[in-house]
């Protein structure tokens, strides 16, 4: 059973991994992503939000993609409710991470409401990459703490810096938010279906931008996922029916 032996060897190697290596990787993710809070602070302040509002978003919402989507829609003149709806739908993916992490981490009930605030892309990725529950907990906590501290600190610095330099559009800093968002998104598009969803969402968002109020194209771009999955399902079903009866 060579395949089974290989799996067992991989599991053993992961389980024997030093805890300091998990901490190192978690800190690397936390620091790298946490520093991009500066871009959010600049973008948020440049879109018209106050220093208090900007810092409150990072502290209470604490999910970068949703925060950038919200301030981006507001900066474009979108309705606050529409902007908030777009941010909500982007953040809804964290609920699915929570379903998986609740089983993996198995935290005490008293800690779950606090841990829920840290259920985001980065903490989920680090925790799910571990081979033992202890390592998953360490990775989750270290990533969450380092990212939370740095994200909020750099948000504050970015907002203060935006107020100091004045018009962020004149410096081209209004592009910082979308650039960081794309940098975070691009490595996640690993399959053909994911790339197709992203491409169709871009087409819908940009194509509808001139004819619809700001913020609405972001919501309609969410239709890209079910549309691509529907086409994929039709293709799979068609391929199945094309197989001769004697080959099934």
Structural features, described:
The chain has 248 residues and is mostly helical. It folds into two domains: 17-188, no CATH class; 190-241, no CATH class. Helices cover 77% and strands 0% of the residues. It contains 15 helices and no strands. The protein has helices at 2-15, 19-34, 37-46, 51-61, 64-75, 80-91, 93-105, 112-116, 121-128, 133-165, 168-171, 176-185, 192-208, 216-221, 224-242. Helix 13 (192-208) crosses helix 15. The longest helix has 33 residues, at 133-165. The radius of gyration is 21 Å and the shape is globular. The model is unreliable at 1-12 (pLDDT under 50).
Amino-to-carboxy terminus distance: 28 Å
**What's the average pLDDT?**
81
Number of strands: 0
* Portion in helices: over 70%
Outline type: globular
Computed CA radius of gyration, to the nearest angstrom:
21 Å
Overall tally of structural domains: 2
Total helical segments: 15
What is the N-to-C succession of helices and strands? Answer: HHHHHHHHHHHHHHH
How much strand content do the residues show?
under 5%
Residue stretches low in confidence (pLDDT < 50, at least 5 long) are 1-12
Quickly give the structural class. mainly alpha
Largest sheet: none
């Amino acid at each position: 059973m060579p395949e089974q032996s290989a799996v067992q060897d991989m599991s053993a190697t992961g389980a024997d991994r030093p805890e300091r290596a998990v901490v190192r990787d978690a800190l690397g993710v936390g620091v790298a992503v946490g520093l991009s809070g500066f871009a959010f602070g600049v973008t948020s302040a440049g879109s018209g939000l106050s220093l208090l509002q900007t810092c409150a978003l990072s502290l209470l919402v604490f999910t970068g993609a949703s925060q950038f989507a919200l301030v981006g829609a507001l900066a474009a003149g979108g309705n606050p409710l529409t902007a908030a709806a777009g941010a909500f739908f982007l953040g809804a993916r964290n609920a699915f991470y929570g379903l998986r992490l609740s089983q993996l981490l198995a935290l005490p009930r008293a800690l779950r409401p606090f841990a829920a605030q840290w259920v985001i892309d980065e903490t989920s990725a680090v925790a799910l990459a571990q081979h033992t529950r202890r390592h998953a907990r360490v990775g989750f906590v270290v990533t969450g703490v380092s990212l939370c501290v740095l994200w909020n600190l750099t948000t504050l610095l970015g907002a203060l810096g935006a107020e100091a330099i004045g018009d962020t559009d004149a410096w081209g800093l209004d592009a910082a938010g979308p650039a960081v968002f794309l940098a975070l998104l691009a490595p996640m598009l690993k399959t053909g279906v994911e790339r197709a969803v992203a491409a169709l969402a871009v087409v819908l968002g940009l194509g509808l931008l001139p004819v619809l109020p700001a913020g609405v194209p972001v919501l309609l771009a969410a239709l890209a996922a079910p549309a691509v999955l529907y086409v994929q399902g039709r293709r799979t079903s068609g391929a199945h029916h094309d197989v001769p009866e004697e080959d099934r």
